[in-house]
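@channel anyone free to eyeball this complex?
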Amino acid sequence: MENIAQLMHGFAVAATPMHIALMVAGVLLGILVGVLPGLGAPNGVSLLLPLTFTMDPVSAIILLTSMYWGALFGGSTTSILFNIPGEPSSVATTFDGYPMAQAGRATEALSFAFLSAGFGALVGVVTITLLSGFVQSFALKFSSPEFFAVYFLAFASFVGLGGAPVMKTIVSIAIGFALAAVGMDSVSGSLRLTYGFDQLIAGVSFLVAVIGLFGLGELILTIEEGMHLKGVAARVRPRDVFRAMAEMPRHWATLLRSAAVGVWMGITPGGPTAASFMSYGLGKRFSRYRAGYGKGEPDGVIAPETADHSAGSAAMLPMLALGIPGSATAAVMLGGLMIWGLNPGPMLFVERPDFVWGLIASMYLGNLLAVALVLSTVPLFASILRIPFAIIGPVIVVVCFVGAYTVGARGFDLWLALGFGAVGFLFKKLDYPIAPLILAMVIGDKAEDAFRQSLIMSKGSLAIFWSNGLVATLMSLAFVLLLWPLIARAAGAVLRRPG
Amino acid sequence: MDRPVITRRAAELGFAAMTGAFGLVIAWGAREFGVGWSPSGPEPGTFPFYIGALIAAASLGNAAVALGRDPRFAAQFLSRAQLGRVAAFALPIVVFVLLALWLGLYVATALYLFFAMRAQGGYSTPHALAVGVGLPVALYLLLEKGFQTPLLKGPLEAALGL
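replying in thread with the prediction:
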């Protein structure tokens, strides 16, 4: 019950006129970046982050998380109306959302998407509220070996459950770690891997990487595929919204199943994208409405949307309590926390309860606001997509480079952003996952510190990672996940054997 | 005709070579900082050295997979038309970065947007001018006035005393 009291205190922090105004601004900006091609939640947050350096951390995180909610909603809007997922995590929403829109049920599809997204986010936030005390007391037992084991677990789950080719995931993670190592070594204080370039002394900013990899890379991909916009006109009719609302309870089984999948995938870093696909897949197999999946079935919109948003919000729990982000966007925010001078991890709850609970309370308020705002502004934002790409494309390019420059006022970052843009395009084309690279860049130094401090404690023996029950369990679990593709293949071979 | 210029296999191999080279550069660079054990724990180069080696090894793995018989790798990676579109979009961006470092971000933005709309988008000069001048002005008001965040400036701003 202590959590409830803390939450009430959080509402007092979050519900000031200033913070509500920031939420509205954040959600609207978020919908905008979600709708625009090439801009999504991770780089939207990256672009905004440098502007928050001088803000109070509570206000800054409220602005950024609200932008995240808005971007998730914006991504679903374009999936349904244009068959273009604004975010990777809303790809599964196109499967049934776009057919519904084509059949003249666009408003209904959007309402189902927004309402189930709101429900999913709510489940995610309630989970955070209930579990944070527990996770915090659990995490206070952690020392360096446990922290390294948790980081290792996070990356192992990307390799085992991410769905991308295993070796490509490993390359992606390791490149992120390598980039994180450039510049100042946080243990010894010496400079390393600068190869004589003064520009590398400050290191490679993960924000510039996100802007290039996600923003510019995505734009080049859009160009390469040729922009085909066949939008379905959207006018939100209140009658359809209410009809969708009345129909929602009939989908309770899908809502609960999808929210559970989302919360699980958000806390273990599977991320919203994996959650939405998995939830859609489960719905297709088990839902009462499975026959209509793929042909414009509301249940097929509800399943991915609920999971997407519950994963998105649940990803905040490991970010705050352990310092491990559950998604690329959470990774960027984690980096923001460190830049604002906060120390993510269990001590954050003790040192800055106003920040943590203000954020959690703002997640309740922000999501409610986001549902209301997105329903009322869809026609406006849909019309943005009618601006020809010859204008909007170059404008987004400029915004990306301006954002890259504001990170550290370095001209060199413009070249870095350009390089990351090219790499991002190739990553996407060749099925290399980008999110693990970002995660590794953000927590690379912390993971390395934990590893080195563990070895200092044990005088160089790796046995320290199996020295007590907790760390041994975490490490073993990580190895199971790491080898999961092999285990699954072996199990499949055994099961397929006749007799 | 939409002929393939690069196969998927060539692209996979080329990119694996790039990541592999990156891994080797990291591992080689890390050796300078010591990759063994010192009285104060692992030396600073240890972790990057093994990370670099891991990148190189996994890149070899990716190259080996791409050399396999999977028919997906024989498919095209980029067609001539796609390559043309990408080049037409990406080359002006490179010029934009060069201009930005020389003339500042505001002037480069104006020139880049004007070019993209006028020459590539087929818009009339007044339209292209409106966007080309409008966006830098909007950025200036938002960033320098609103958020006190200065952008890269060049000779024009100096002449105007901004």
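from a first look: The CA atoms of residues 423 and 435 of chain A lie 13 Å apart.
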